[in-house]
Write a structure and sequence with these properties.
315 residues; alpha/beta; four-stranded parallel beta sheet; two-stranded parallel sheet; globular; binds ligand G4F
């Protein structure tokens, strides 16, 4: 998001939480133009200060505990950060800015749908579909979604919610399954690790490229009115499918000899299948995608092969 906004000559402020957070140095090294503000989504006073300091015209709330598995182990913290944090931020905008001059983007998620038989439309989840979250993360995000809509309706604030399906890329954390797979395949190919340990392989996700989705988030705030929009690829594939494409791209052949399973990576309740319908974003915002699943896998594998090769030759 920062990269995209900088390319459009925005003055960008980024919030970093915690003392000595190593992500701050990484952010400053990659984007020295971004002005860093220390604040925490659980600290309303710090958020008021952040709004005062930055005097924003657009606020993108991408802050969250966003790992579904982690949310089962830390459900209270997830509720505080991912759920109530949205309220703290909206209140900060109301208190410390003229809310009629600020547009807010709330990162809602396809995890709010839950992927169950009874609420799954054949053409994919859209803005009218029923919610049935399956994790503390999904439940917290649903609170964030509804409090954002409530502030839109109660205070006439420009608050838009992007209901985004999984979006991946070279910057994806290795704790998420796509990057875990592409990084491991690169390391296996280079002889740096023997195998890859995963959880369930049958769940299906609607995967797209993060850079395409960032454009959609921005388009939502340029629209004439605040609204909710689904961003998705419109196709779905299993973890097994992602493994096949990855091992093919890395020229490793069949993935099965390399993959082990461990219940430690399985969740108490799973989202079986996610498929989104982005028709509204396409027709109203003119949003589109530049990369399909194979293209996404190829760019992630190529990036990880180059990165792992560079790291091993530097060592
Ligand atoms: O990559 P994941 O951890 O992503 P998940 O749970 O779909 O959530 C991501 O997408 C959401 C949007 O739909 C976001 F809201 C959320 O913040 C996050 O970005 O897991 C994908 C699937 C799951 O079914 C999981 O059980 O992969 C399965 N899986 C199998 N083995 C694994 C693993 N997931 C992880 N993280 N690690 C594994 O070893």
């Amino acid at each position: 998001m920062a990269e995209f906004l900088l390319s459009k000559n925005y003055d960008v402020y980024g919030v970093v939480r915690g003392q000595n957070n190593p992500k701050r140095a990484a952010l400053e090294a990659e984007f020295p133009e971004v002005k860093v503000i220390e604040a925490d989504m659980t600290d309303p006073t710090a958020l008021v200060r952040a709004v005062e300091l930055s005097a924003p015209t657009e606020v993108y709330n991408l802050a969250a505990i966003s790992h579904v598995g982690y949310s089962f182990k830390n459900p209270t913290l997830t509720a505080e950060v991912t759920g109530k944090g949205v309220l703290n931020l909206l209140e900060a905008v109301r208190i410390a800015a003229d809310p009629s001059t600020v547009r807010v983007y709330q990162a809602s998620t396809s995890e709010m749908f839950g992927g169950l038989d009874y609420n799954r439309p054949g053409a994919g989840y859209d803005e009218q579909s029923l919610f049935h979250p399956r994790s503390p993360y999904g439940v917290a995000k649903l609170y964030g979604h509804w409090i954002a809509k409530n502030y839109r309706e109660s205070y006439d604030m420009f608050v838009s919610c992007g209901i985004l399906f999984n979006h991946e890329g070279e910057r994806r954390g290795p704790e998420f399954v796509t990057r875990k797979i592409t990084k491991a395949a690169a390391r296996i190919k280079l002889g740096l690790q023997p195998n890859l340990v995963l959880g369930d392989l049958w769940p299906k996700r609607d995967w797209g490229y993060a850079k395409d989705y960032v454009v959609g988030m921005w388009q939502m705030l340029q629209h004439t009115e605040p609204d909710d929009f689904v961003l998705a690829s419109g196709s779905t594939a299993s973890i097994e499918d992602f493994l096949s494409l990855t091992f093919e791209q890395a020229e490793l052949g069949d993935w099965r000899p390399y993959v082990l399973q461990d219940p430690a990576f399985m969740r108490p309740a799973e989202v079986d299948i996610l498929l989104g319908n982005p028709a509204k974003a396409e027709s109203v915002l003119g949003w589109g995608r530049s990369v399909d699943l194979r293209g996404l896998v190829d760019l992630m594998v190529n990036f990880d092969l180059a990165a792992e090769e560079a790291a091993s030759s530097a060592a």
